[in-house]
Amino acid sequence: MNKRISIILPVNNVEESDLSIPISSINNQIGIDFHDVELLLIDNGPYKLEHPEFFDLFRNVDLRYLITDQVMESNSAIQFGIDAAQGDYVTILEPNNQLHQAPTLQGYFTMSDAHPDADSINGIVTTQYFDKQRVAHYQVGRMVQSIAGRWIKRSFLQDNQIRFKDDFGPYAEEYVSRLVNKLSNDAVDLDDYGVMKFMSRALPNNNALQAPINVTWMKMMSLYFQQLQNADQVAYMNEFAKFTIRFYTQLKSVPVADRSSLQSIMKTIVGTNALAWAPTLAYVKQVRAKDQSPAAPWNAEAQQFDNYLNGLSQHLNAYGLQMNINQERS
Predict the structure, then answer these.
(1) Residues 55, 23: contact at Cβ < 8 Å?
(2) What are 162-219's pLDDT values in tens digits?
(3) pLDDT 10s digits, 29-71
(4) Domain interval for residue 142
(5) CATH number for position 58
(6) Is residue 302 assigned to a domain?
(7) Out of 77, 114, 195, 241, which could bridge 149 as a Cys pair, Cβ 3.0 to 4.6 Å?
(8) pTM of model > 0.85
(9) Strand pairing class (136-141; 187-197)
(10) Is the pLDDT higher at 73 or at 246?
(11) Whole-number Å distance between alpha carbons of 273 and 278
């Protein structure tokens, strides 16, 4: 029997007791038909759960306990679950997450009924974090570069070949989120709380922190542009132009010793996306004419920023790509 939602819960080196909160938050939902819901518990760690039969206590949940053939990284375990899912939509719940309240799923079902063509339904996420004095704080909002609190149509992911990739490490979630953001024909925002993310539990949370730009992030962005170019040329051009500006500003947060390798990768990415370079320069020209804020790189350090753009243009010229640029300008 097909389900309306498949909730994927990947677990790695946790015990049964660690999963009681996320599973009970599903089991205790109200106002829904539990035949529409399945929970896929993906056991992907080196140590299997010893007593998965304990989960039989959660009688409302149609729980499928799946053990991967070999130890997997978290991203592969998520994709394993998506591939095995039977729901029209899929969503991810981590061991240190829980559905926000008892009517949470009811709200999503109501929204999906009202918008049957929606590729994604996006709820509000509450995230817990701690300051240096170990005081807990809570941040509430939508997470545009996260899949937390999102229902994503499984057929949409398949049709657009959007998959979680281990090569991208902590940026796999950002990769998927970026493509969902740009390629969704109908994305609906649910004005209700979907998921609570707790940072206080001593459980794996690979996506909790994201480093400044690095080689892995650049590799992720390169494939993101490739996917986006094949699907939406306008979005691709705009995203590449924004990326070019962001790289310049974010490079300053990288240790000086590591900048050279990233600059080299940037030149390769610009070469791969040579046809987007003239539109990028045009975009920068438009933005710098409108944005007069002192902090903008074209105002704060105009000469350095121009040298940065000119250096990338010269790199393209050196490889005989000036013809493509000129064609784009004509």
Answers:
(1) yes
(2) 999 988 988 999 999 999 999 998 999 999 889 998 865 544 444 444 447 899 999 9
(3) 999 999 999 999 998 877 777 787 888 889 999 999 999 888 8
(4) 3-197
(5) 3.90.550.10
(6) yes
(7) 195
(8) yes
(9) unpaired
(10) 246
(11) 10
302-318 and 322-329 helices, crossing angle to 10° = 120
Give me the pLDDT at residue 28, please. 95
- Residue 206 in any domain: the answer is no
What per-residue confidence (pLDDT) applies to 206? 44
Same domain flag for 183 and 277: no
pLDDT of residue 130: 83
Among 265, 240, 279, which Cα is nearest to 315's? 265
